[in-house]
Amino acid sequence: MSLSEVFNLADKNPVVAKMRVAELLAAISGVGKIRAQAIMERLDISPTRRIQGLGKHQVASLNSEFSPTTTRGKLIVLSGPGGVGKSTIAAHIRKQKTFWVSVSSTTRKPRTTEKHGVEYYFLSDAEFDEEINENHFLEWAHFAGARYGTPREPVEKALASGKNVLLEIEIEGAKQVKIHAPEAILVFLEPPSWEELVSRLEKRATDSPQRRAERLQLAQEELAAASFFDHRLINDEVEGVAQKLLSLASAH
């Protein structure tokens, strides 16, 4: 019996309707308790929720998760120090039909070349607070005086449709994703050398000398977090790094 058939049966059978979702998922072949818990956290479903208490969007998400006709996409998380070239790699991956690149929300001010909904969703502090309160973020974190977050719903929809998803986010956010989605593949992007990273950061015309010094100090701390990640790639050539990311999605 498929998951959708169980949900349909719950409409007629009160015994099935009162069954806990965690027990139902854990009983599915190849799932088990740990994966069931991770799926429920990712889909924002309470661990004590019963089938009869599921909302329509939660039922739809669960059906998509276990759809026999669609292979769920892979979640790739790209992170690394500021100035290493994450956004350039993400822009290259965005051209691939098999990938969908998430657009993060942030409270920082847009740069002159950035547009709302393209590079980021630029939110006020109040708007960001509301998104947190509504549990609309897969992850969110403070970075360099601003807050950044990944909208949950579009990521789930893309994965359920079979698309591979790339999150270009900060290190603290990447750690949060790994907790809520253990199957995520974490990739740390490294500069060819420290001197090259310094050169890239110094070329940012929007940063004051003090801001550049702060970014360099932060970059040193971020480089120390590389061991937490599943894979480490040196950004010495955009095309090569993009191809390696595509290969990682195919290999896992």
Automatic annotation (TrEMBL):
GO terms for cellular component: cytosol. Keywords: ATP-binding, Kinase, Nucleotide-binding, Transferase. SUPFAM superfamilies: P-loop containing nucleoside triphosphate hydrolases, S13-like H2TH domain. The keyword Transferase applies. The keyword Oxidoreductase does not apply. Its EC number is 2.7.4.8. GO terms for molecular function: ATP binding; GMP kinase activity; nucleic acid binding. It holds the Pfam family Guanylate_kin. Residues 73-250 form the Guanylate kinase-like domain. InterPro entries: GK/Ca_channel_bsu, Guanylate_kin-like_dom, Guanylate_kinase, Guanylate_kinase_CS, IHF-like_H2TH, IHF_actinobact, P-loop_NTPase, Ribosomal_uS13-like_H2TH. Belongs to the guanylate kinase family. This is guanylate kinase. It comes from freshwater metagenome.
